[in-house]
Amino acid sequence: MKGDQLFNIAGLEDNAQDLSPAQKKAFINTILKNVNISTVLQTFSGPLISTLSLYTIQQANINAVDRIVGKNWTKCQAIYLVKQVFSGKIQPSDIKKLGSAIQGITCDMFNSLSDQDILTTASILEQNKDWLSRHQMTCFAKKLWAALNTTRADYFSSIQDSEMQLIPTVFLMFLPPSQIAKIPAKACSSFLEKMASADITLLPRTSLTRPALRDRALLCLNKTLPLISSSDLQQLGLLVCELNMTEIPASVLNTSLQLFTQCRQLSSSNKAILAKRILTTYGNCSTWKDTTITSLGLLMTFLSSSDLQTLPNVLQLKDTLMELIYSIPDVSKSPAEYDTSLNTASLRQKLFAIIIAPAARRKRAASCVMTPTTQQIMDLKEDNSQWTPDQLLCMSTQTFLDTFAILGSVQSFNEQQLAVLKNKSIDALGPPSSYTIEQILALGCLMVGFTPAELQQVSVTSVDILTGINACPNWTVQKRAVLVQRLINQTGLTVSTMGMVELSGLGNFICGMTAEEIAQINTTSFRMAVGILSTVNCSLTVMEELMKKAVSAFGPISTWTPAWINEIGNIIAGASSTDLQNLNVLLLPMITPAAIALIPPNRFCVLSPDQLRALGPTNAAMVTAEQIAMLNSDQRQGLSDSLGVVIPRATNPETSTKTTTIVVPVPLKGGTSRLALVGILALLQPLFLLAIAP
Q: Using only C-alpha atoms, what is the Rg of the chain?
């Protein structure tokens, strides 16, 4: 199908919503062969736009704000476009139009705003706060406080209630603790109203601003914790999560339990106190029914594993627990200071026990105490990783055939489980050489369990196969290399002839290439695909080669713009010490957070205090204990200033827990199986045929 025919299909963007980034890239690449980029940008606004490289967008020569409104831009696109359109200076009326492009406004642009426009701008930004980064919030807040203090010395010590009403809540949270303490009683009414809706998870967990906001709110209530009431707690919003639960009367906690379902960052001591209150109020878990679990909701995550294991093993609880567990957002791992994920491990263990309980008394054979069934596997989804290798071994061939697409979507199987399931695959489907593309995509992450020798038999006739299994963890470099070579051998491609689509489809499989092969990558193709390759997490040697390729594509790093450095993402981790040392401070906050933790400690330590201070809070929170251990006191102070909390010296990085875990993004939404890579295209095919039908 020609690009203009594809472009004219009604509802194309809606149908492309669930495609992988590489497939979207293929769609947009086909369209651009026959349709110019300006027309594409005028027509599309959603998922297809987000896959456009900066190199492609540059060809559109966008120079007016009206051409960027109403689009779902990525951050690097927004950075480029805002710079291109506004040349460093922006007005409130422009900001109001930007939508997702607000991501591209820099601190220098905020600082260029006139003091007279600052409150108007603050109101506009609050309406678009979901597009703001913590770094943007922090630097705009500093501009806001500076502007207000020019109108009256020590502004907050004499602030009126009506003036407090004008300050957006999202920025009030970034007021320094010393200024929060000065807020007078006459401003308490508006202050409490704002705290009721304040999202304090935007602040680091150990930030001194959190207790400052909490203490000022309690003073405004004119209450100490032993005298606080349920109605008082309701006025505090998320600040209730910052209270010392030991001082709150038990009767008040009992009647206010539901308030704490909003807490995502409770201390372990507060969780223990709430768990005790739950058990006191609702009785022992062994007597609970499904209505009790529904009533408690997220409070169930505060209970200990030993308490949850006493829940009755009855099927009546299965659906209720499943609904609860799958309602909890699947938050990717964030640095500890900003982690809002709830631990559902104990709930999942209990759900597993309930699901397998009916089969626990049935034996398939003398050696099989338990045999996984099709229904159990369908119910468990990702929690199929709780089966032991011996239990998986007892699975019948028919059950495997009925469920291997579900098992293939599980990313948490260990090496022993994968070895068993690999053998099941061979028993049920035959040798790897006989697998069809549909079977390979359905097997998904089970393919990780195959040996390099077995993978050499797999038919890799399309990059779509590697795209479909790219997100699976635990691929070794050797296995990736084998599959990349299979692709090259079976498609007739060479590394030098791989285009943008092929490179995008490789994803982390590019980590299986040698330094010599990466050097052969076509520079133009790399420039077009780098936005998708930006999430790769390869060995240092490979990252260094990718960085060299980025330099050949974009020029010396000293000439890079904030947009370029954001687009290359993790690849910056391959930069040399000299390149890092010479980075302009304006580029530091534009480095993607995931890339920070990947920079080797012996290179990260060359960053100056000013560079570290410029990182921004989210990037600063991604710095690992190993990196901190190599910083001097001035550098740690710069990092502390950026994060807003004191960074102590990491004295024993070998045993310290890293502040972050890099998670490879899953290319498909909502747990869609790899088989959907084929299925989605099949769904789109009728639309294509309709478009070209006479």
A: 28
